[in-house]
Structures are given as C-alpha cells and as structure tokens.
Amino acid sequence: MSKLMLTSSQTVGPFFAPALLRPDAERHILVEPQTAGERIRIEGHVLDGDRLPVPDALVEIWQANAHGRYFHPLDQRSAALGPSFVGFGRSGTENEGFYWFETIKPGAVPFDAERWQAPHVCITVFARGLLNHLVTRLYFADEPTNASDPILLCVPENRRSTLLASRHQERTGVVYRFDIILQGEYETVFFNV
Amino acid sequence: MNHTTIGDIVRGDREIFPPYLYEAYQSTRRRAPLLPLIEVPLTLSELTGPGPAISAITPEDADLTRNAGTGGEALGQRIVVTGRVLDDQGHPVPNTLLEIWQANAAGRYLHKRDQWPGPLDPNFLGMGRCLTNAEGVYRFLTIRPGAYPWLNHPNAWRPAHIHFSLFGPSMRSRLVTQMYFPDDPLHALDPILNGVPTEPARQRLIAFYDHNVTEPEWALGYHWDIVLAGASATPFEPVKEG
C-alpha cells in the first residue's frame, strides 16, 4: 500500500518545446556506429479524433537493446550491455504530427520465469489536451513471436493490429510505420500502467 | 465549469489522476481516447525506464534567472522553488532529473505559438533542469511566473504555474505535471487544475510559501514535494539469471 498520495498529472501544454525539445534533450537518434543490432527507423503520425495531425505532441520511447537487455539497474541479467545504447528516444511532432526515431530492433525480453515477450518498444505520448500521458507499445508486424506475447494476448483480438508497426524496405533502410490514433476508428490501444 | 462532461477513462488511481475526457478543457475533446484502457501486468519493460541513464548524462541548469546567457538577470519576483522527490513509500528518489518550463513574470512564454501581447523578457528563457541530491531534494532559482490568457473559454486565464517533467526510476514513475502557487483566485476557474478529480489531489499540486526557504535580501521561498509511483505494488524482484 502507498503511504503517500501520488502527485497527479497535468497536461504538458503547448509550450514545452523550448525545454523538452532543446537540442540536448530531444533524442531522435538512439544509436551510435558501434551499437549492435538491426538498424531500423520508427516513424509515424500522431492523429486526433478528426484524423487531424497533432503538431504539439511529445513522443517518448523506451526499449531493450538487440540482446533484449534494458540499460537499467533492475536488469541484472548477463545479456550483453554496451554504453552505446541507452534505449531512450524523445521526438516532437511539430511537422504535421510526424515523429521519428533511428534505433535498432530490440531483442525479446522476459515476461516471467518461463515466458518471453515479443520484441517491443514502449511508447509514451504527451500532448496539449492530454491531462495524463498515454502509454502504448509498438510491436513488429513481421515478428512471429507476437502470437504468444502475454501482453498482446491481453488485448482484444480485433484491436491488436493497432499495436503492429508495418515493415517497409526503403532506399535508406528498414522503416517501421506506426501511427498513434488518439481517438475514434482504429483508436490505438492504450494501457493502464 | 459546472456543466461539463467528464469521461470515465483514467490511467492510474481515479481519486488522483484526471480523466482523459474533461470537456471544460476543450482540447481534451478530440484527443481523449474513448475506448477503455487495457489492464496488463507490469513487466520488466515498465519496471525499468530511462530515468537512471538520462539523469546521469544531462547537465544541471537550475538558475532560470540567469541561464539565458545574456549576462543580464530576468525581471520579476525572484523565488526559490524547492522540495523533495519521494516514492509512494516516502523514500527519497535521489539523482533524478527534473525539467521545468514556465511563463515569464508578465505571463508570456518564449514560444512562437504564444502571441498574446504580454512583453517578452530578453533575459528569461523560462526553462531549467536539475537533479535531486542523495536526499531527493531539488532546488530551482527562478522568477514567479505571471498568469496568462488562453482561448479555452471567454476571458480564460491560467493561474500562475510551473511545468515539471520527471522520470524517476522506472516507466511507472514518469510524470509531467504543473506546480501552482498558494492563494490564487484563478485556481477555482481553471479547467486544467480542476481536471484533477479530488480536492486532496488538487492541493498536492499547490506549493506552499516557506519562510525558512526565503532568503534574506534575495528571494521568496516556495516548497513543493513530488510523489512518484514506485515499484512497491509489483511482483517483481530484480531480474537475474534463473
């Protein structure tokens, strides 16, 4: 049980960019040349209930490295961990609601002692008009282990596709597209965590 | 604000956290999800987070009165804002990053989309950051922000506030919120503060004047503690090979 009442959330508002997107605070590129793993680009739009782009959102991601290990003191497993990949990204959406990251595809991470989670990227969305941030996950549409992912199995089957990023081979490399639809038809699944 | 549709989709404790749909705050109407949030168990993905790593690499910048780098000092009532960052068990959260942003003393943000005719201050950027110390204490020197008008409803004014962003130790502890000042008549009129569902939770967002923080011949002192979700309600032990 909690001993203290948590501090409540308030909207990030429209004016966060000078603080949260200053050059050393925005993080589009998560990789360095020596980072292990398959290079991918993650990109998409944040859209509102009218399918209009949300140009004042903030999208943050958190992911494991290519070996499925988190750069975090709680993750003490022996999988390789290097200083060249933290796994945190932060993008604004000033350009027509568009966000993007250059990262690597994460490895699978454990769910419990027996089961594994499919590779996934945790996504947090802040925006004017969101009194609390939204929490979702990106899964990779071409990943066969999605079928047994314990979290995806919590999601009604007809909504799981909203969590699947589609793979595209472009001249510049592999791109996974993932639109975040805040409201309405094909509304993205958000989690109560 | 007496007649507003309040949605029932809430992330976290319903006594504390605002619903996504709170129609008095108009921007929620087309941005609030309308389908229920999915309940899922916490995993290693949520019990870790970027806080420890990002706090280690982000420099401190806690003096907003001078960090514009002009050599000049921001105009306004100089204030110290300090307090502790704690988890829900009351333990301090040490070495964690706080990022803040605010309007200037006239209520104007340095932002291209803030165009109301309040004056800008060339010596004030309105952003800063710092790390908590080993006891979870943070401290900013800044100026008291002004109230400012917005277009939410006729003659709408936001009460003076400072935006805070914190990571804490895990994804669960991520928090973006706003700190308000005591005894502000605009509190009762503000749909953003009143989106918080209960009076105790709203009061938790209001700093108190602390004469022990006030510095003679220098700055008024405000105290505001922040309580972040901890990992205590989880089944997880640190993950090792097993």
Kindly summarize this structure in a few lines.
The complex is a heterodimer of chains A (193) and B (242). Chain A is mainly β.
Strand content of chain A: 25-35%
**Stretches of chain B where pLDDT falls below 50 for ≥5 residues?**
233-238
Compute the average pLDDT of chain A: 97
At CATH level 3, the topology of chain A is Protocatechuate 3,4-Dioxygenase, subunit A
Give the count of structural domains of chain A: 1
Q: What is the annotated CATH architecture of chain B? A: Sandwich
Q: What Rg of chain B do the Cα atoms give? A: 19 Å
Indicate how many domains the architecture of chain B comprises.
1
Number of strands of chain B: 11
The CATH superfamily of chain A turns out to be Aromatic compound dioxygenase
Describe the structure.
The complex is a heterodimer of chains A (193) and B (242). With 193 residues, chain A is mainly β. Chain A has one domain (17-181): Aromatic compound dioxygenase (Protocatechuate 3,4-Dioxygenase, subunit A). Helix content of chain A is 2%, strand content 31%. Chain A contains one helix and eleven strands. Chain A has one helix spanning 17-20; strands spanning 39-47, 57-62, 88-92, 98-104, 109-110, 116-117, 120-127, 134-140, 164-170, 173-177, 180-181. In chain A, the strands form two sheets. In chain A, strands 1, 2, 3, 4, 7, 8, 9, 10 and 11 form a nine-stranded mixed beta sheet that branches. A two-stranded antiparallel sheet of chain A has the order 5-6. Chain B has 242 residues and is mainly beta. Chain B has helices spanning 44-47, 51-57, 199-203; strands at 78-87, 97-102, 127-131, 137-143, 148-150, 156-158, 161-166, 175-180, 208-209, 220-223, 226-228. In chain B, strand 7 (161-166) and strand 8 form a beta hairpin.
